[in-house]
Predict the 3D structure of the following.
Amino acid sequence: MKYIQTEVLVIGGGATGTGVLRDLAMRGFKCVLVERRDLTHGTTGRYHGLLHSGGRYVVKDPQAARECIEENRILRRIMPDCIEDTGGFFVLTPWDDPSYAPRFVAGCQAVDIPIEEVSIGQMLREEPLLNPQISRCYRVPDGSADSFLAADLNAESARQHGAQVLTYHEVIRLLCYEDGIAGAVCLDLVNDEKVQINADLVVNASGAWAGKIAATADITIQMLPGKGTMLAVNHRIVNTVINRCKMPADGDILVPAHTVAVIGTTDIKVSDPDSFGIEPWEIRLMLEEGEKLVTGFGSFRILRAWAGVRPLFQETNTALNRDVTRAFVLLDHAERDGKNGLLTITSGKWTTYRKMAEVTVNKVCEKLGVRRPCRTHLESLPSSTKYQGTRSPVYHHLGARLAAIEKESSYGQLICECELATVADVERAIIQGEARTIDDIRRDIRLGMGPCQGAFCTYRATGMLHDLRHPAILQTNAALRDFLNERWKGLAPILWGQQLRQERLNQYIYQNVLNTDALPGPKTTKLAPDMYATSDDSSRVNYIPSSTTTSPTRSISSTDSGLNTTPRALVSRSDVLVIGAGLAGLVAAWRSVKRGKKTYLMTKGWGATHWGSGCIDVFYSDQAAASKIIPSPSDFIRQLSTSNPQHPYALIGLEGIQEALNEFQALCSEANYPLHGSIEKNWMLPTALGTLRPTCLAPETMIAGDARQRTPMLIVGFSQFLDFYSALAAENLNAQYIFASDITLDLPSLQKRRFVTGIILARLFDTPEFRNEVAEMLKPRLGNAARVGFPAVLGLKDSIEVKQDLESQLGLPVFEIPGLPPSIPGIRLHNLLVAAIERYDGFVFNGMQVEGFKAEQEIISMVRSNAATRRKPHYAQTFILATGGILGGGSQVSERGYAQDTVFDLPILLPDQRSNWLRDSFLPSGGHPLFHTGLQVNTRFQPVNKFGLPIYQNLYAIGGALGSCDPIQERSLEGIALATGFTVGEHT
Amino acid sequence: MISPAPPNNSQTFEVVELSLDQCIKCNICTTACPVSAVTDLFPGPKYAAPQAGRFRQPDQPTPDKSVDYCSGCRVCNMVCPTGVKIAEINARARATLVEQGKVPPILRLRNNMVARAELLGKIAQPVAPLANFALHLKPARWLAEAMFAIHHKAPLPPFAPQRFTAWYKHHPRPTGAKRQVVYFHGCSTQFYEPRIGRAAVRVLEANGFEVIVPPQNCCGLPLLSNGEFRAARKYHANNVSHLVEYARRGIPIVGTSTSCTLTLKEEAPELLDMHDEDTYLVTQNTYDFNEFILLLLDEGSLNLNLHPIPLILPYHIPCQYRAHRLGRPGFETLGLIPELHLMDSHASCCGIAGTYGYKKEKYDISMQVGQPLFDFVLESDAPVVVCDSETCRWQITHATGRPAVHPVELLAAAYGLPIEGSLAEIIMDGVK
């Protein structure tokens, strides 16, 4: 047990707690704040970011409204870099009672909120996406606030005035003596140590958790945690805060916050602030209410959902949360419960946090018998370092980060590309911000909060955390796992459409390419994020979705002529038309064209070859890994014919798969890029994480990394290459008893570059000069290594030559280690297949998305592809669908639980309830049920209907489009693509 | 997010910037971008379009000037598996830079000089010999670089002694033509390479068309790619007003400049948010030359009386042509000519990208982007290169010294029509 003595102990690291701490410190009190996780981990970090003008409360709660506008003015003054002056609109939609508007206007005037009516024309000029049916619009001084930064700055200011902030200190109990409270006992989660803090006075600022804290001293506080669920839209569909002009209700606020627009919220009473779920009906409600504000809202990409718990309080219980006062409450437990030494400040809103702190500290002064005036409204918060370099703006603005990046030309330094967090930002968050988890980094610099939700930055931040803090490797691994799961919890409720595709890519990266499952160490840790409780579709509470709102399709391309005769479109004719350019499509086209068929391959863009490892994974199962015996892919496949007869492998049979692998190996050898291995054994090859990934066929450039051979490795990274962390990889290999050391080269030729990506390195490795530079610097540093591993960037043109050159210069075997996309080894496979197709006079057309088709009597006669102004028809005898399922964009799942392939509208059966689609963790054992879905086919790979009959006689489906398998989970993605593409291309 | 006014007629359309929501950050575009492959002044398509797009806001200072290094070749669009309109987002971001005065005045003046081929032609072509002399005088080019930042080596084509329309005015109309077609010549044919227009007219007439050449402006593409949207809008509106009558009557509008036809078909309406009915009618009735020839072939009305041309020639599909998303119409058309064999350059871009390669600060980038193409041409040993787009032809000739021709010139030759320019000598030699 550790002991700390202080005057005032503040419990809770949210807006209120940090605000109280600052006020205390500024008034000269010795004070300590404890927070059970990181600052803003609770409700403060989970709100929509609205700086209220007070307009929302003018009719219902004028007192709250008055406090809001007063504080609004103060906060704009003391923390401009936390605030974006978006302004706010209150809009009257056709669904709102028009008689509310005059009451609203009068209410604003009564509490001195500046208000002006805006014409609808002007409103639409400023916010063109707003529903044009809106009939009235009023402007008020709402804003958008960065609650993370504000709490950090309050804490920083408090520290400057002598306060102490202890994060990851969870209160176990308050220290009770006969006449009251004298501090608290905490658990330091990081050091796993108890800490007793003795204080003259304790301020319970733990928000919705105030009741739980008080209960440890047998004090009853009736909290009514009100869960509010919010959704973030991928980009700023509005730049002004939009409120509905009506009594406050669910889903009536749309806030532009940083790069996203947040719609909120619901308000549902929950019994426990630590356990609640996000329900599908809440999501639907947000979408439908959003539609009333912004036409087409439901068609926008939703990034994420989250929920916070409002700390609502009432002395007497009430069932309806919204009617509980939003003004704050200060409880003096000496008066209320006869227990000295404890104050509870709770309820209220973010906007009034400072006022709450002022009132609380006034009470502290009174209790401790001193008179010290509040100064928090007079002195600005310490200026944030984040936006240094920008011309100090009065307020934060959306373009600030991009402007800063441009100013320093640091676009090659991005760790989180979506939210523009640079290496320097992450370093600052880790070192100055004392980040312990990647989630802590996120709260500081928005890492992982953009569209890809951590696809790239999770790995990079893990590498940096490890490099900078040197924690035990298992702790680093825990940080990675925890963050993947933390992102997952807010994604699972909103996975449909493009965000689902994004998540499938993320799984491909983390499960398949990096094999995160195999990371040494425990699956969860005590610093892990708490997960939302599993949602249940049956828990729909008194909400009936309105059928009146429809979401008009916003994005129909203008390319279809709609005219009958003229103008006409250019036609193409072929024997075989393959749609999709992933491995499956390319292989099918190659075999088809080789047989002398006139073959065209049409694709929207390039496929999953560019994302994978560049190996051919055929099959592997985690369950088998546990038994320490590594079965061969063929063992698995033999079992499949009985355990899962609809599995694509079962439909082909072992011999067919074998033939496909052999022929493909022959092709690769011809192209001087041999793939080694056989279906009888899996290689175990290192990944950029240092895990071992089982794979069936691996390029010659990788096989020297095989882990069943135990000679020591040297893992080589490059200082400027942010997609590979050699120490992380080496230490994980060591943790698996494979001796590895690491080195990071700082090459002069790379120092001159503003960015160094995988593709840049690959092109450099194609040149002898660069190879010489690498070898020269590396040679004296080889140590006792018996082989040398590089990131998988060893050339695009002739990687065998690159490998051999390095080997002869270093005198050691050299191998490549795959990591984040783009996959250079995958691009090599893509290129050699395209070359093979063109060698036999087949053609690959990219940028030509297939958008429609014509069929008569179960025969498809043609498909149409997107082209400038007119779709282009393509006639063929045979059509092969290789559009890659959810990952490839070939099947789309809607929020309403409907899925179909995007070319031929073939139906795809999904698990019946959304809650049965996905499991609770990002990479669950056995996978997510949703991802076992896909097209059902017969033994000839024709998509079939529910009666097992072909839907079209001349249509075949291959690769990721197929169901009855989860290729990412099974590590069979490339194997299925290759085998089905080969079979259909060869025999159809 | 920038959002234009809603469409004022019945068609729906996709707002360019909204397509950024499709991005899954997968980096495929970054592997294909030919510009960021050779310079780190352009951060790459993913950064510039879907990423930076989330930080741009109308009525606020636009934060990123690096987007100006996008050449607009659209290779990224063609490989993107999710459908982000990357090049268009970049073009519109550049227009905001221009609008907000973020482009230094001297560069903006320069951009307007290189982007106004029509104006330049109108002034200089009448004094072609003098202009050519001046424009190809070394000190004059150095002066132009110093004063206007136009690179002294950039390939400026010579002005033709006679404008295309001047020839056309005196060109005898064929008798007995049953069908009509509108020919959109574009600025290059008008002022620099009228031989291509003459070949086009002759080929169309050989197929029984009466060729109409209505008054027309520059298509506006050079202005669009320099962010000068206001001026581009004027040009496009003028063109629509000149062309819409023909479109209404169902008379096809055919052009030999792939970038002009793409602009009429798609670029101008999309980038400028011109979604009125007239513009739409013009888009629908505009065809690239090869596309049109193949349509004739398809309906069985193409004159197939083509003489052999026993040559093996390198063919480069311009990036602007790929952006039509038509496949390989150039190959298919020229494939009709007996004994003519084409070798595909497989190069993504010649680097010039319209006016990009003319600029002092971008010339070197442009030449490096085109290097794989130049190597291919030089290795081929062929006497002439085939390419649909004028600036690409000039760039190829500039970098390799090989003359370059438009496919229509080969078609004209195969029909036995008068051949002009470098092709004339080669075919004479070849036939011998």
Observations:
- Residues 28 and 739 of chain A are 55 Å apart (CA to CA).
- Residues 473-491 of chain A form the longest helix (19 residues).
- Chain A is about 30% helix and 20% strand.
